[in-house]
Amino acid sequence: MSTTKLITAPATKRKPPKASPANADMPPRSVAPSPVAKTFGIIALVVALLYFLMPVYWVIVASTKNNADLTNTFGFWFANWNLDTNYDSLMSWTQGMFWRWVGNSILYSTMAGVIGTLFAIMAGYAIAKFVFPGKKIAVSIIMAGLLLPVALLTVPLYMEFHALGLTNTMWAIIIPSAVSPFGVFLGMVYAESSVPTELLEAARIDGASEGRIFFTIVLRLLTPAMVTIFLFVFVATWNNFLLPLMMISSSELKPVTLGLYGMMSYFAPDKGAVMLGALLGVIPLIILFFSLQRFWQSGLAAGAVKG
Fold first, then answer.
1. What is the DSSP string of 241-286?
2. Residue 170, CA distances (Å) to 99, 131, 144, 257 in order
3. What is this structure's pTM?
4. Residue 175 pLDDT grade (very low, low, confident, very high; cuts 50, 70, 90)
5. Where is pLDDT greater, at 61 or 79?
6. What's 215's DSSP letter?
7. Within 10 Å of residue 97's Cβ, how many Cβ atoms?
8. Per-residue pLDDT reduced to its tens digit, 79-128
9. Residues 175/114, Cβ–Cβ less than 8 Å
C-alpha cells in the first residue's frame, strides 16, 4: 500500500504596506486633529498672542505721548514721538534716581534669584534622594506654602525684620524674596526624575563626599530646573510692590516699581514719562527671558516624563 506525502508550500509572510511619502509625516488618523479642531486651536493661539502682546504695544505707544495726547488721541496710535521730552521729564520727576532704582531692582532680583535657586535646589535634591525623619511633614509644609498668598505674609515679615533692625535695608527685600516653595517643589520633582540613584551610588563608592557629588554632578544635571527657578524668583522679586512699600523708606534703596508708584502719587503726574519709565524698566526682564529661554522651556517640562 503506497503512501503519498502531501507537500505544502511554505507560508509566506506578508510585508506590511509601505507608507507613501506623502503620508509619512502624518499622525495616525485616531490622533490627528480634525480641521475644526485645528481652526479653533489657531484662533485660540492668535487671541492669546494678542492678549499678551497688546499691553506691551500699548506701553510703547503711550511712552511717546504726553498727558494731552493720552486723553485726546486714539490709544493705539503713536503720537509726535515725545521721547526726548518724556525722558527729560522722567529724570526730572525722579530727581535723577530712575537708573539707580533700575539698578536696585536688578541687584535685589539677581541676589534673591541666586540665593533662592541654590537653597531650593539643595532642599529639593535632599527631599528627593535622601530618607530622613519628618520627610513627609516637610513636603506637606512646602505644599502648604504654595497655597499661601505672598501678601498675607508681608505684615508678619515686617514685624520680624523691624524687631531685627533690618528694615530699610536691602536684606529686607532679598531674604524674604529668596524663599520659594515652588522652587523647592520643582527641584524635588526634577531631581527625582533626572538624577539617577545609580550615579550617586557609584560616586559614593569612588569615595566622593556628598558636597562634591552635589556641586560637581547634581548641579549639572539640574541646570534646566535651576534656570527656571531663577527666572521665577527674579520676576517675582522684580514685580513685588507691597514688600518694598512696607520695608523701604529711603529713596536711594527703592526698586523701580516703588519709584514709579511715587511718580504716580503726585497731583498731576506726567503719565507719558511714567509709561516710558515702565518700558525702560521692563527691558532687563525681556533680555533675561530671551537669553535663558531654552533652559526655561526644558525646566518647565521637568518631571512630565520619567525615564
1. -HHHHHH---GGG--HHHHHHHHHTSSS--HHHHHHHHHHHHHHHH
2. 17, 36, 27, 15
3. 0.78
4. very high
5. 61
6. I
7. 17
8. 666 677 888 888 888 888 999 999 999 999 999 999 999 999 999 999 99
9. no
Enter the C-alpha cell of residue 240. 513685588
**What SS3 class is residue 172?**
helix
Domain with CATH 1.10.3720.10 in the chain: 94-300
* Helix residue ranges, H only, the chain: 35-62, 67-72, 83-93, 98-129, 135-147, 154-164, 171-177, 181-194, 197-205, 210-213, 219-221, 223-239, 242-247, 256-264, 271-291, 293-300
Mean pLDDT for 52-60 is: 86
Architecture of the 94-300 domain: Orthogonal Bundle (1.10)
Out of 68-82, 195-209, 276-290, pick the least confident: 68-82
Grid cell for residue 75: 490709544
- The label of the residue with cell 527631599 reads 127
Q: Is the backbone of residue 9 left (phi > 0), alpha (psi -120 to 50) or beta?
A: beta
